[in-house]
Specification:
Blueprint lengths: L3 E5 L3 H12 L8 E4 L4 H11 L2 E2 L3 H5 L2 E6 L6 H8 L8 E4 L6 H6 L7 E5 L9 E7 L5 H12 L2 E5 L5 H9 L1 H18 L4 H21 L4 H8 L5 H11 L2 H21 L1
Parallel strand pairs: 1-2, 1-4, 2-3, 4-5, 5-6, 7-8
Antiparallel strand pairs: 6-7
Amino acid sequence: MFGKISFIGAGSMAESIIAGLLNKDFIQSENICVTNKDNQERLNRLKKRYNIYGTMEKEEVIRDASIIILSTKPYDIKEAVQSIKEYIQPNQLLISVIAGVSTDYIASLFDQDVPVIRAMPNTSATIGHSATAVSKGKHATNEQLEKALALFTAIGTATTVDEEDMHIVTGISGSGPAYIYYLVEAMEKAAVESGLDAKTAKELITQTVVGAGEMLQQVEEPVEILRENITSPNGTTEAGIKTLDRYDFHKTIIECVKSARDRSIELGGE
């Protein structure tokens, strides 16, 4: 169904997807090819780590690829397309995981009507737990959309959204793991400053985050009820929540997500 998958761009998102696909045995390493703008050392590291094929020869990367995943930085997309567009064939599917950049803009860079799917996974793809949103460009078919959904379902969950919603998706699930890690950093620091050893703190906090995630998935109650169930009057949790409220934690998170969304919009404009 998939054959050769080629990556244009070899950054952290490309690596997360590659690792996830290989860890899930979705594709054989010899069917993955990767290139980038000029960093041969990075390609060599990926080749060694995953036993995939990496080269600066763009025609070789594009040849016979059923899916081409565009994973450059937003400001590199025009140059990247220039380097590959003469080799693109009508039957090849382009999937962009580039933040902020629309399918219409990507399609406009080619000299033909190319099918483009836009996706926003996150780095949890590495372990098969990405939350990926997917949108279909105007030249892509429903069959190609299903193909993209199958690919991203292999490394987590995949949900179809309107492309206009991709900016807010970037702010929540695309950037979301970093917010969680930032919270965990603070919790670990508080634990160690209070005398708990770092290893024990990490084990307890990690399982707490995993357990909360499982509760959100498996229990039907709204998240507010789950929080309230833990927050006994005059108890320890209430004391902690009151401190978060005093520092306007709720508003801070809302503004955090909106800032990521706005930056996604800016990147599209740039």
